Amino acid sequence: MSGQILDGRYRVTAPLGSGSFGQTYLAEDTRRPGQPKCVVKQLQLADPDPQIMQTARRLFKTEAETLETLGEHPQIPRLLAYFEEKDELYIVQEFIYGHPLSDELLPDRRLLSAQAFGLVSEILEVLEFVHGHNVVHRDIKPSNIIRRHQDNKLVLIDFGAVKQVTAGGINGRGSRTVTIGTPGYMPTEQIEGFPHLSSDVYAVGAIGLQALTGLEPDRLPRDRDTDEIMWRQKAQVSEDLAEVLDGMVSRDRRQRYQSATEALQAVSSWQNNLGATVVCSPSSSPNPPSTPKQTKVWIYTIAATIGLGILIVSAIAFVPAMIEGLGSKEQPERVEENDRLAIDKAKDHASSARTQFENAQRISELYRERKRMEEAIGQLQMIPGSSRLYSEAHSLLTAYQGQLRSMNGRLDKEKYAQQLLDEAEAIAGEAKSDYAAAKNISQLEGAGAKLIQAIAKLKQIPADSLAHKVKHNKVAQYNRELDSINGEIEKRRSPGPPSNQDLPPCTLTLWGNCRE
Question: What are the residue numbers of the active site?
Fold first, then answer.
């Protein structure tokens, strides 16, 4: 289908993916300046029955209207068009330049609680808008969330127009739908064909678990009796925060937050109460999930009581030591020595990471040094607030977190620059093939136009990126190839005088040029 123009406007350039019900393509809008990229989704029904196709068209239109409304949100791709051509249904959406969230949630890489819930909160904010229109996404997962390079915001994609059209009651029987989604991110009711707004909440919660544990949701163990996900032993997270997540991924839909709004309120409440003190360590046993709607006053009452008890016990133990002048200093000194070693190790990691990151020549090297900076941050986070070195550790932690954000920004820029380079090389490759197969001037001009597009892509590469080093050579190469194409066009337009072999014999010609 590559090269085909749909609706007299959208030129398909490459396939993006396929599913049970359709195909997705990358395309160019030939009627807009610069021919910006867009995403074309093609509905393909296995059953050609006219009645089914008629219903599909009606639901397709309804879905397009829904997407038109959802696209008003700045973190949802805009709907550009929907149409029917040669009995095939198409929908066109804005293409988002960025990278999938799955590139950030790498195996065995754990994010901090604040980072993980930053992701969860931002996704829920977008999902709240979706749920406000009574729309269930049904396939929320890291690969369907794009980190937009332009502003570093998360964009929710793939609302599955095809999925909803084919699954939304075409047969007109009941409310059950075809099971659609991704294992690990689907709750029980969705697997059984009865998705709900809370099914999306489950998926977002599963992403939160993945961010905290470094494991994909379907790799996390489940309780044999309750079938609840046993994740707490694989993460370090405060008790009230763990309850929020449990309320998002509860197996029982009735015990789950019913919409993105409810879940977002719970997350916001946690963010406003960062003083929670009870922590689940990796070695602790998982607690059974609680009902999100239950009041949490008792948690803080217990926390306060425990804190008061610890204070009293500490005072009782401390006073005799002061009176008797006794007490071993060996253990505190050993703890402080360990804290000092952790800080020094963090400094070494961070210093090396900064230097190597600045001198990196490949994107893989940038990723390696970012991981080293994350390790430095992890070392500092192990320093307890009771340590006499906590102030120094906290100061370094703040500085390194800022440097990590700068590293992430640089990586986003490098990935964007590499994407431009890859696109330019792909377009130039098409131009070369078109040039070799060209049979007329129009086809030559088409090949030349693609080279101009490739050069324009290269000129968008930031000057301070790694890809910029090959930019000039590529531009020079494509300009030379463009000159060759233009030369061939000029040659075909001005063929010059005929050769001697092309002239008729003089014996047969009474005028004009002839050969002896």
Answer: 139
